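A.,

Following up on our hallway conversation. Structure tokens first:
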């Protein structure tokens, strides 16, 4: 431990000892004063010479004070030990050691307050550790995914520049450049959207609009993707209206439908349903294909998390984090169920 930290701990110990000692002195002074008062009043009759009795009382008070000083200095170390443990653990956590965990001794570990402190601190450390791991993975994967389309664009642009290509080759290379450019755009947009919604605490730009029409437009925007996989969109709903931020909810539907297309099997259906109750509207997006493991259902809404740990599929783990935040801003909720090769995301929004 550094000299400066030792001084701070010593100061804390002295402060604690001083407080205890202060109350001890007051107690002794009050007790001594009461005894002297009672002697003066004749309630207590001292044996022998009165001055000697006063001297005896004073000596007892001084002895008690000195004994109190020694006991306070020794005993105060014990109640301050848990405080020192918490400070040490917090310092390690602040320095980046996210594997730090707080554990008290046997005597204190069974106390409800101590259990609650340990549990809260360890949960905090665990969440920070998970976030740090996800952040590191995201930086590595995002750097790789960002670099790959850039290399492709540069390579095919160079081939086009050199010429000596057939019209078919030119068209193919231009299509690849366009596709990779769009991929870069989506990644950058997701990062910007997440940053924007994370910093927003109040929902603005609310208006009434046709929710059904918005979802149909989102499906049309993704036509290239579902037509390539021979996926058929099934839209089973009438006309529904909602009061919400139209631009934000557009991001929600595009992300959910895009995921359904991405993870749905070729030649299957992506089904979208809208239902309502008196107070809420429910939108469900379902696909038939890759299932989400039970242990991953809560994690998929975290920043940077990807179910596919090999990162062989497209994505950077930001889309569902954006979706979750937008729905929370609308005071809504999103749930997911997955099994029997079918995955359903259900969004609940207040009307």
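Then the amino acids I'd put at each of the 351 positions:
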């Amino acid at each position: 431990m550094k000299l400066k930290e030792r001084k701070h701990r010593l100061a804390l110990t002295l402060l604690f000892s001083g407080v205890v000692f202060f109350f001890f002195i007051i107690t002794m002074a009050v007790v001594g004063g009461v005894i002297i008062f009672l002697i003066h009043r004749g309630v207590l009759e001292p044996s022998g010479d009165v001055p000697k009795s006063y001297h005896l009382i004073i000596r007892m008070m001084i002895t008690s004070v000195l004994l109190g000083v020694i006991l306070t200095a020794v005993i105060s170390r014990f109640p301050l030990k848990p405080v020192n443990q918490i400070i040490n653990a917090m310092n390690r956590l602040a320095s980046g050691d996210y594997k730090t965990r707080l554990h008290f001794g046997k005597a204190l570990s069974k106390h409800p307050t101590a259990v609650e402190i340990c549990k809260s601190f360890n949960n905090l450390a665990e969440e920070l550790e998970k976030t740090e791991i996800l952040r590191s993975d995201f930086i590595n994967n995002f750097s790789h995914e960002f670099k790959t389309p850039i290399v492709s664009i540069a390579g095919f642009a160079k081939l086009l520049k050199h010429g000596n290509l057939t019209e078919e080759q030119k068209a193919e290379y231009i299509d690849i450049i366009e596709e990779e450019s769009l991929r870069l755009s989506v990644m950058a947009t997701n990062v910007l959207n997440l940053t924007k919604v994370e910093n927003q605490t109040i929902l603005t730009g609310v208006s009434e609009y046709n929710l059904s029409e918005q979802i149909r437009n989102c499906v049309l925007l993704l036509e290239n993707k579902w037509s390539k996989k021979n996926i058929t969109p099934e839209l089973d709903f009438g006309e529904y209206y909602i009061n919400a931020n139209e631009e934000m909810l557009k991001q929600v539907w595009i992300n959910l439908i895009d995921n359904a297309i991405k993870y749905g099997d070729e030649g299957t259906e992506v089904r979208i349903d809208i239902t309502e109750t008196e107070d809420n509207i429910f939108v469900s997006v379902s696909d038939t294909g890759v299932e989400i493991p039970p242990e991953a259902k809560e994690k998929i809404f975290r920043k940077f998390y990807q179910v596919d740990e090999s990162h062989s599929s497209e994505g950077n783990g930001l889309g569902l984090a954006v979706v979750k935040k937008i729905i929370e801003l609308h005071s809504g909720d999103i749930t997911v169920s997955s099994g029997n090769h079918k995955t359903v995301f259900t969004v609940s929004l207040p009307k």
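The longest strand covers residues 280-288. Curious whether your intuition agrees with the design.

B.
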